Amino acid sequence: LTQDELKKIAAYKAVEYVESGMVLGLGTGSTAKHAVDRIGELLKQGQLQNIVGIPTSKKTHEQALSLGIPLSDLDSHPVLDLAIDGADEVDPHLNLVKGRGGSLLREKMVEGACKKFVCIVDESKLVKHVGGSGLAMPVEVVPFCWKFTAKKLQDLFEYAGCVGKLRTFVENSKPFVTDNGNYIVDLYFQKDMGDLKAASDAILQLPGVVEHGMFLDMATTVIVAGELGITVKNK
Ligand code: DER
Known about the structure:
ribose-5-phosphate isomerase; globular
């Protein structure tokens, strides 16, 4: 099975949790895309009715619109029934790293407003500890003096051999700009950052930081699709 086929299997399994009448958080990324497609399909077939979708990015907003999924926002629906979204990393405690697609702020706002958050991944996303894959742990920062903020972030995690890099487009080295008009500083760790809650609090203390990509204690279920089948992990 290809990685995309595994993503689709996890996504379709998650959509089994959707009931008619629900207000849903619609995730962003290549895994969540399959879930949103599936919801659109079931709505079209009449197997689901009265669904309201709250998108976690402009990209998902466009996808949901094209599928005819009725859309709303957090102002109108401050509490949601269920969110379905992917992740870049999942640790054994169901802590996540998200945001390599750049949508972490709206994802965290939406998923933080949900009674249930079902995270969908292929098995390649499973890690021993968050930030341990050597891949990016994204931090959304205001563009104003981003270098100042990036240095403060790097200094925070000097003990973990952290390097912070502004996320730029490969083709023209221009800064990536989020849906909210901010920049992203990606943090790369060489060692375990230790207490995640303490790390999260320290990051959010920095005035130039808007939000970070660690989703701690937020997922209520993680659905993992692997070569040997599907695993459902509940909090
Ligand atoms: O950027 C994001 O938060 C996405 O949800 C990401 O974490 C997962 O993207 P993928 O499903 O394309 O791997």
